[in-house]
Amino acid sequence: MRIVLVGPPGAGKGTQATVLAETLSIPHISTGDLFRANISQKTELGQRAQAYMSKGDLVPDQVTIDMAKDRMEQPDAANGFLLDGFPRNVSQAEALDEILKAQGIKLDAVLDLEVEEDEVVKRIAGRRTCRKDNKHIFHVDYAAPKTEGVCDACGGELYQREDDSEATVRNRLDVYHTQTEPIIDFYKAQGLLVTIPALGEVKDVTQRAMDALKK
Predict the structure, then answer these.
(1) Considering the entire predicted model, what is its pTM?
(2) Structural domain of residue 160, as residue ranges?
(3) Is 123 a catalytic residue?
């Protein structure tokens, strides 16, 4: 099965991608992982990406497309994959269509994790991270520490990362609406789009996605 997962920041794409890929026994291919792997392994594509990133420039679409194409051609993706973070815009979606067409395969579904914008802001802006150990993360509403501002695990100070501020979150949402959201209409026109309500427990959202895929 070949799936694309889309949705705004804070919709739970990373969590659902991991669970769904494991359930379906297909590799989870995320843009972040592709960049980290290519850069750490010093591949030609990684070096090209690093050259742009080191100057603070955006990595061109073609570099991202080439990384994704290379990953999808690996043996473990022969029977399917789940794409997370790619395609990020209509140009990348069109390129993905061409890549799959050349291989004589096609997408089975595009799952759109739907969540209200205010809920996205609440989810992300409510995060609090431990200064001593960034692995310890709490939430003022959903996973509050026993003592406000103090990490349950090590007693470290909890703080709000700059990336998690409401202003940053709303800016990320603006970028999503402008750049990525148009691919929803692109895939809807192809009859591939399936909207999944992303509110609720992780297992419930996963079950909705699995039920939709079975149909």
Answers:
(1) 0.88
(2) 2-214
(3) no
